[in-house]
Amino acid sequence: EGKGKKRNPLHDFKKTGELMLIKVNKTLEVKTKLLNTTEQCAKRCSRNKGLSFTCKAFAYDRVTKRCHWLSFNSLTNGVRKKQDHAFDLYEKKDYVRNCIIGKGADYKGTISVTKSGIQCQAWNSMIPHEH
């Protein structure tokens, strides 16, 4: 079952059409390269191949066939959204998801309070509970 079938790397990304992210914070990183398909961009972002940062999203310019890998996403401080008909934005679901699946071991989202509003324990703290 599933033999010979390759997993589509775009499955891990949330697509927003005709949107580009503009970095206001100059410390945020971007790398670009000509690539023929969004699948190639996604694969490289997922593996962080050839990138000096953790890829959280990429924008694909359909006109120039250029991939823009981003060290940030739409939830990052110092970033603004810009409507742009040439681009499609793909954000890693792990970084924009606001739900926790299972025990949340792979959660990278922004929620830091419980459903009842209690502040979550920091990962580097063993108080009030041990991990």
Describe the structure.
With 131 residues, the chain is mostly beta strands. Helices cover 11% and strands 31% of the residues. It has two helices and five strands, in the order ββαβββα. It has helices at 38-47, 93-96; strands at residues 13-23, 30-34, 57-61, 66-70, 79-92. A five-stranded antiparallel β-sheet has the order 1-5-3-4-2. The N and C termini lie far apart (37 Å). The mean pLDDT is 88. Pfam families: Kringle (PF00051), PAN_1 (PF00024). GO terms for molecular function: endopeptidase activity; signaling receptor binding. Residues 98-131 form the Kringle domain. Residues 5-94 form the Apple domain.
What is the count of β-strands? 5
The CATH topology of the domain at 7-93 corresponds to Hepatocyte Growth Factor
> Spatial order of the strands in the main sheet?
1-5-3-4-2
Any idea what the CATH superfamily of the domain at 7-93 is called? Hepatocyte Growth Factor
Provide key terms for this protein.
2 helices, 11% helix, 5 strands, mainly beta, Hepatocyte Growth Factor, five-stranded antiparallel beta sheet, 131 residues
Write the layout of secondary structure elements.
Elements lengths: L12 E11 L6 E5 L3 H10 L9 E5 L4 E5 L8 E14 H4 L35
Antiparallel strand pairs: 1-5, 2-4, 3-4, 3-5
Question: Care to give the gist of this entry?
Answer:
Keywords: Disulfide bond, Kringle. The protein has 131 residues and is mainly β.
